[in-house]
Design brief:
The complex is a heterodimer of chains A (about 300) and B (about 525).
Chain A (H helix, E strand, L loop, with lengths): L6 H30 L7 H19 L2 H25 L4 H24 L12 E2 L9 H5 L1 E2 L1 H19 L1 H11 L1 H6 L4 H28 L10 H11 L4 H24 L5 H19 L19
Antiparallel strand pairs in A: 1-2
Helix pairs in contact in A: 1-6, 1-9, 1-10, 1-11, 2-3, 2-4, 2-9, 2-10, 3-4, 3-9, 6-7, 6-11, 7-9, 10-11, 11-12
Chain B lengths: L14 E10 L2 E11 L4 E5 L6 H8 L7 E6 L2 E2 L5 H6 L2 E4 L11 H6 L10 H15 L14 H14 L4 E5 L7 H16 L3 E6 L2 H7 L2 E6 L2 E6 L1 H6 L2 H13 L24 E8 L8 E8 L4 E5 L6 H9 L6 E6 L2 E2 L5 H6 L2 E4 L3 H5 L6 H4 L11 E2 L2 E2 L1 H14 L16 H13 L5 E5 L7 H16 L3 E5 L3 H7 L2 E6 L2 E7 L4 H9 L5
Parallel strand pairs in B: 3-8, 3-9, 6-7, 7-8, 13-20, 13-21, 16-19, 19-20
Antiparallel strand pairs in B: 1-2, 1-4, 4-5, 9-10, 11-12, 11-14, 14-15, 17-18, 21-22
Helix pairs in contact in B: 7-9, 9-18, 15-16
The chains are: A mainly alpha (about 300), B alpha/beta (about 525).
Chain lengths: ~300, ~525
């Protein structure tokens, strides 16, 4: 038990929490934009996996982490394109297609990985951290929050970017109208299908980026099913955040702490069965749902395909 | 009909329809409709539910495309391909159901539709809004959330939005249906100011008074066809009473060669007999999505058919369900053959002889996946002789079902066919067979011919006549006035959950009921 609450342990715990939180943050922000526009994107887990796999492959062969992020985002968006075609344009059931995409991508990425790397799991070199001067010198907090890869700071900045988008831009208004009253948007002369397609593709890109971060920075390698429910946690975050990006950030950090705690407690050798420790993040989900779930306010047209003139 | 003069000078019409036809599966919503819309005129489109008003609006606002005929804008044939296109042509629509996003503010709603890369131009908006509202004499709270506004205020926002987009033609679809009387007067005054500015307005309503009070030109639609028009020249020379009577004639006048027209056999109502069903002061509390009922009272004697007329959604379903026991009554009494039944359960009322034929045939009337045979006995599940000790007696059920199929002429491939596979008319026959079977005393029919083809409609009506002839009391709820006039002994009119009048079905009943339906005294 010694050293459980030492400075080093605490800062490692928080560092791990941030690392674990970033994929959730990106997934949550991504899901949020889809839900705002009225599309319940259950396929986000599949989009993350596609991003994780393609992001890893991109980084592995090019040697550039940034190129890996790019291929990851493109991979996620590609899966989202299928979702947009089937659910937004044709109007098929969003839940069924979402589950199908997730299951399909789980199998596909595992299979491709097996073809390529057989049973070996090559590693990427450790990601280079961008150290923020001065701030990183603060004890505990410094090493925990200000010694991350540049993409981490960009992801956090994205929270504020999204807030601006929703509150201050025309596109933000259109997105919200597409989710709350698509017919009103349509008669205002804006194409609902196009607006929702933009939202779903953005979701795919963000989820893919989150997956790529998970594989390339978080783990440094790709293993099948690496996302392990991160996309679903993103859905929970988006639902609890009531349309506000900042709450996605807080939620992601909370879950990040739980996830980091599971690792930390195992490392610290606390005498609790690992199965129970690994339950922690999901227990946190359930507790959050019990506490805040009733207040979640979802867009009125969430999950309902838009068809012009239908009554 | 002399009011037909469509001497439209093509150059003067902003928008004109020529022979526009629109079909939906099974129905013709608009049947070669001509319409000319001119600046400085309030053109009233008048018609009952299902007359095709909304479809016409859908085509003008770009939501739907005509199957035949053409739309001319400024004299040029122009297909209106999308709502955006309609807006670009200067056609602004205020839909019957509000088209504002409730979670956004008024300003944000007004800004919807701008180019997505732009920042919303709030300051510019405020200036233009001030200009227009000043001109129209209305006030609009730009920063209020739409969900906090009254319906009348929301409507003003929608009109304002159309004006902001430089509309030349403003379409108001059933705009008064949710307004208070004061709101309606304000809307009328607003429309007058708008046409004085040179706008064209198409005003859709089913209320005759409003048409006469606010219109310059009136077109009457009936079952998808335009049955008449009163042009402004005639409109001005006629007094309000004359306009009203002319419209009533157009709306409710009987057409020749109507296959549904049947001579109603004159029945001598058995005045001496005691009423079989007595309803007094029946009340139902309103819910979020349904109107309530207030002090409904009527009697029905054996062998009598009482009709309930009215525009759909005025409490007809609530009345039927309250009588059947499916909806809790807030007060009042229901007596069946003298005995109070208002506290009894649905099943007990049925056993005493009160039967209800729902208009929701597949939803609450039958279980679609169950075979025809079982659907005959849905309301007797567990009862002998068809069930014994909880076990289904196939042979008994099939024997009786086969009998009912023959008796009621149900066209079904077999007794085992799931009922949902039958046509609407045959499903209705299954319901009729079930509800009219032994022990029935009072039967409530809710829209019994709704959605049926002609042959089944006629068969159902005959069934209703026979029911009354057997000495049962019949309550016939229908939105089809012809049907009521052809079947009933008396017709009561329901509006906003109350009976506004009852008319003996003799000579001038058509006009009287028509007037009651549109809010005039008989």
């Amino acid at each position: 038990m010694t050293g459980l609450f030492s400075e080093v342990f605490l800062s490692a715990l928080l560092f791990g929490a941030v690392t674990a939180a970033i994929p959730l943050l990106l997934a949550g922000l991504g899901e949020q934009i889809s839900e705002k526009a009225g599309v319940l994107n259950i396929g986000i887990e599949g989009m993350m996996l596609a991003g994780a796999y393609l992001g890893f492959v991109g980084a592995f062969y090019s040697g550039s982490l940034w190129l890996g992020f790019l291929t990851g985002a493109v991979g996620g968006a590609a899966v989202a394109l299928v979702m947009a075609l089937l659910c937004v344009r044709i109007g098929l059931n969003q839940i069924v297609i979402g589950i199908a995409l997730t299951l399909g991508l789980e199998g596909l990425t595992a299979l491709l990985h097996h073809f390529q790397f057989s049973r070996s799991y090559p590693r990427l070199p450790a990601a280079e951290a961008t150290v923020i001067p001065l701030l990183s010198d603060i004890p505990v907090i410094g090493p925990a929050f200000f010694k991350h890869h540049l993409i981490v700071y960009l992801a956090v900045a994205l929270v504020f970017g999204m807030s601006y988008l929703y509150r201050r831009t025309q596109l933000g208004l259109n997105l919200q109208a597409a989710g709350d009253k698509p017919a009103a948007l349509d008669v205002a002369g804006i194409d609902v299908v196009r607006t929702r397609t933009i939202a779903v593709l953005t979701t795919g890109a963000l989820a893919g980026l989150g997956g790529a971060y998970l594989a390339n920075v978080g783990a440094g390698l790709f293993i099948p099913f690496i996302t392990n429910g991160a996309g679903f946690l993103g859905i929970v975050l988006a639902m609890l955040a009531r349309g506000r990006p900042i709450w996605v950030l807080f939620g992601a950090l909370l879950f990040g702490v739980c996830l980091s705690l599971t690792t930390a407690m195992q490392v610290a050798g606390i005498n609790i069965p690992t199965d129970i420790i690994q339950m922690l993040p999901f227990l946190a989900v359930m507790i959050m749902l019990v506490l805040f779930g009733r207040r979640a306010s979802l867009p009125a047209a969430l999950g309902i395909p838009y068809e012009r003139g239908a009554r | 009909m002399s009011g037909f003069s469509s001497s439209s000078v093509a150059g003067r019409d902003i928008v004109a329809l020529e022979g526009v036809t629109k079909r939906f599966p099974g129905i013709v919503a608009n049947d070669s409709v001509d319409l000319s819309i001119r600046p400085g005129e309030v053109h009233v489109l008048l018609g009952e539910n299902g007359a095709g008003k909304s479809t016409l609006i859908g085509m003008l606002s770009g939501l739907q495309q005509p199957d035949e005929g053409r739309i001319l804008v400024d004299g040029k044939p122009t297909p209106i391909t999308s709502p955006r296109h309609a807006l670009a042509l200067g056609i602004g629509t205020v839909f019957q159901h509000m088209m504002l996003v409730p979670t956004l503010t008024v300003a944000e709603n007004l800004l919807l539709g701008g180019p997505w890369w732009q920042r919303p131009r709030t300051e510019e908006l405020a200036a233009r809004v001030a200009e227009i509202t000043g001109m129209l004499g209305i006030t609009v709270k730009l920063q209020a959330k739409v969900s906090e506004l009254s319906l009348g205020e929301q409507q003003q926002v929608e009109i304002l939005r159309a004006m902001l987009r430089n509309s030349r033609l403003l379409i108001l679809d059933e705009s008064t249906s949710m307004l208070t009387p004061k709101g309606i007067d304000e809307l009328g005054a607003l429309m007058r100011r708008l046409v004085e500015q040179g706008l064209a307005i198409v005003f859709i309503t089913h209320k005759l008074k409003e048409a006469a009070a606010f219109g310059d030109r009136i077109s009457v639609l009936k079952l998808g066809r335009k049955v008449g028009e009163i042009p402004p020249e005639r409109f001005r020379t006629l007094g309000e009473q004359e306009i009203v009577s002319e419209i009533v004639e157009l709306m409710f006048g009987k057409q020749k060669d109507d296959p549904e027209a049947v001579e109603r056999p004159v029945r001598t109502a058995r005045a001496g007999t005691a009423p079989l069903l007595q309803v007094a002061d029946l009340a139902v509390a309103p819910t979020d999505n349904a109107p309530g009922l207030s002090s409904i009272s009527f009697d029905i004697r054996p062998g009598e058919i009482l009709g309930i007329a009215g525009i759909d959604g005025n409490g007809q379903k609530q009345l039927a369900e309250a009588l059947a026991g499916q909806r809790t009554a807030a007060g009042g009494s229901i007596r069946l053959d003298g005995a109070a039944i208002e506290t009894l359960s649905v099943g007990e009322r049925r056993r005493r002889g009160l039967r209800y034929l729902t208009d929701d045939r597949l939803g609450e009337g039958t279980v679609g996946t169950f075979p025809v045979s079982i659907n005959f006995f849905l309301k007797q599940v567990g009862a002998a002789p068809f069930w014994r000790n909880g076990v289904e007696k196939r042979a008994e059920i099939d024997k009786r079902a086969a009998q009912l199929v023959r008796e009621y002429d149900v066209r079904t491939p077999s007794l085992k066919t799931p009922v949902a596979r039958l046509s609407g008319g045959n499903i209705q026959k299954v319901l009729l067979a079930r509800e009219l079977a032994e022990g029935a005393q009072v039967v409530i029919f809710n829209k019994p011919t709704y959605g049926l083809d002609l042959a089944n409609t006629l068969a159902s009506r005959q069934r209703i006549r026979d029911t009354a002839a057997r000495g049962l009391a019949v309550l016939l709820i229908s939105t089809d006035l012809e049907e009521l006039l052809g079947l009933c002994d008396r017709i009561a009119v329901i509006a906003d959950g109350a009976l506004v009048g009852t008319v003996e079905n003799v000579d001038d009943a058509r006009t009287k009921v028509g007037r009651l339906m549109i809010g005039l005294a008989a």
